[in-house]
Design brief:
Elements (H helix, E strand, L loop, with lengths): L26 H36 L23 H16 L3 E4 L4 E3 L2 H11 L27 H12 L1
């Protein structure tokens, strides 16, 4: 050893916070775990054996399933209703909608509601303006409020108190 380094004794090299496993794993614990695993496996197998026996007896009560060969023809399934030409269908729809927007006709003849061409409707809207009513000139409410609030608003007294304190 060099003269600058102090001599280290055997007791100084021991760290009390560090430890190690002094021996191998406990054989009794490992064997107990394996035994419990084996018993659990046997229990699961017995439960499955009982379930399959139950299902087998229920299947025997129900009888054999019909053979697929007894069906002489495949089941009838309706064919899908596809558009043969969706672009032409859309064009026809646009043409009929355009005719509706540019012609006079009845929207509801029984109620006396007619439709006018959209160009004429826009001209009338520019000429007459949007319908509006001055506030308060509209129709009166049909019925009074069935459950009007009575008394002061919640928290109103405290707000008044706070307001009076700030005014002082």
């Amino acid at each position: 050893m060099s003269p600058n380094q102090p001599e280290v004794g055997k007791d100084a090299a021991v760290n009390p916070g560090v430890n190690y496993e002094p021996r191998e794993a406990d054989l009794h614990v490992v064997l107990a775990f394996l035994a419990a695993l084996g018993v659990a496996s046997v229990v699961v197998l017995l439960v499955l054996w009982g379930m399959f026996g139950y299902f087998r007896s229920k299947s025997a009560e129900r009888g054999p399933l019909p053979s697929p060969r007894m069906y002489t023809s495949p089941p009838s399934v309706p064919q899908p209703q596809l558009q043969p030409d969706p672009v032409a269908d859309y064009d026809a729809h646009r043409l009929s909608a355009g005719e509706t927007l540019s012609s006079y006709g009845w929207a509801d003849q029984k109620a006396g509601i007619a439709r006018i061409p959209i160009d004429k409707a826009m001209d009338l809207l520019v000429e007459r303006g949007l319908p509006w009513q001055a506030p308060g000139t509209g129709p009166a409410p049909t019925a009074p409020n069935p459950n009007p609030a009575t008394g002061p608003m919640p928290g109103a007294t405290r707000a008044e108190e706070d307001l009076s304190k700030t005014r002082k």
